[in-house]
Design brief:
The chain has two domains: about 5-165, 2,3-Dihydroxybiphenyl 1,2-Dioxygenase, domain 1; about 180-290, 2,3-Dihydroxybiphenyl 1,2-Dioxygenase, domain 1. It has five helices and 16 strands. The chain has helices spanning about 5-20, 60-70, 120-130, 190-200, 250-260, and strands at about 50-55, 70-80, 80-90, 90-100, 110-115, 135-140, 145-150, 155-165, 180-185, 200-205, 215-220, 220-230, 240-245, 265-270, 275-280, 285-290. A hairpin with an 8-residue loop joins strand 10 (about 200-205) and strand 11. The two termini are about 30 Å apart.
């Protein structure tokens, strides 16, 4: 995993915010589509409900992710902004925003993880009060809802979203959709406590034989995300969120990513739940994970 991932994501998140900022009297430069097209009465605080990719090559990202996962795209055009919504089997799953890299600037493209909340402003204030930072202030999009970009006490960047159309129901993700998220940190105990304060998670320690601390964050009796310790040789690495897409075969997906110009950062290996996972990067360098998941696996919280 690139050591500068979190710092790059922070800059990328700020870039995403800057693309959408205008004077208070002006409307946002483009309107984001609703999270749920037909609306939903469901709200799942703490659930990862969206991800945005900030990249200097929108067309290249569309070609890569479309080839890898079969995503199609709906372009959203506005002066000074290029944004596309990725669609899997008719459902929007992610956004891709293009941000140019200035000459001499070193910036790693990155995915930004969005977590569901009911109140963005109060949640952002709670993050700051508990040692985090506000990177991009709350902003409302008429179709999408209100969102903000934040940083946890160790520097991992994430976003919060109060969806105007409600949250997605808890169903098993299909291949090509997000199925899991993890935050990798130096101190998983303190970080789990931080996220518990912010989102009201139940926290479960997850035993393992790798000598690395793991925890599960859950809400509504459903496992939402993992908190994992960075490897012992990762002293120079920064805390960061990593999102995983469900695939039928992690090995085949990794090989296909290579043919499409991507890279394999962590070779496929057998995870504790019985399926293989791998960490990949798109041609521009944005990391993401892929994970096998059988219909017999469950994401109901541990007991």
């Amino acid at each position: 995993m690139p050591i500068s991932h979190a710092a790059s994501l922070a800059r990328a998140a700020l870039g995403l915010a800057l693309l959408s900022m205008r004077p208070a009297s002006a409307a946002p430069p483009f309107e984001l589509p609703p999270l749920v097209s037909e609306g939903s009465a469901e709200h799942h605080v703490g659930k990862v409900i969206w991800a945005d990719l900030v990249t200097p090559d929108l067309a290249g990202a569309q070609q890569f992710y479309g080839g890898l996962f079969g995503w199609t795209f709906r372009d959203v055009h506005a002066p000074g902004s290029d944004y596309a919504v990725a669609v899997a089997d008719g459902r929007p799953v992610a956004g891709i925003v293009q941000r140019a890299v200035a000459p001499g600037e070193q910036k790693q493209p990155a995915w930004l993880t969005f977590i569901a909340v009911r109140q963005v402003d109060s949640t952002a204030s709670a993050v700051v009060k508990n040692g985090g930072k506000l990177l991009a202030p709350p902003r409302t999009y008429a179709g999408r809802g209100r969102q903000a970009v934040l940083q946890d006490p160790e520097g991992a960047v994430f976003a919060i979203l109060a969806s105007k159309s409600g949250d997605l129901a808890d169903y098993l993700a299909d291949p090509g959709e997000w199925i899991w998220s993890s935050v990798l940190v130096k101190d998983p105990v303190d970080e789990a406590a931080f996220y518990q304060k912010i989102f009201g998670y139940d926290v479960f320690d997850l035993p393992g034989d790798d000598g690395i601390k793991h925890a599960i964050l859950s809400s509504d009796d459903y496992a939402r995300a993992g908190v994992n310790a960075l490897p012992g040789d990762a002293k120079r690495r920064h805390a960061h969120w990593l999102d995983f897409l469900r695939v039928a075969d992690a090995g085949e997906t990794a090989n296909k990513a290579l043919t499409l110009g991507g890279r394999v950062l962590v070779e496929p290996y057998l995870d504790r739940h019985g399926g293989k996972i791998a960490v990949l990067a798109d041609p521009a360098g944005a990391p993401f994970g892929v994970m096998e998941w059988t219909v017999d696996d469950t994401k109901v919280e541990p007991k």
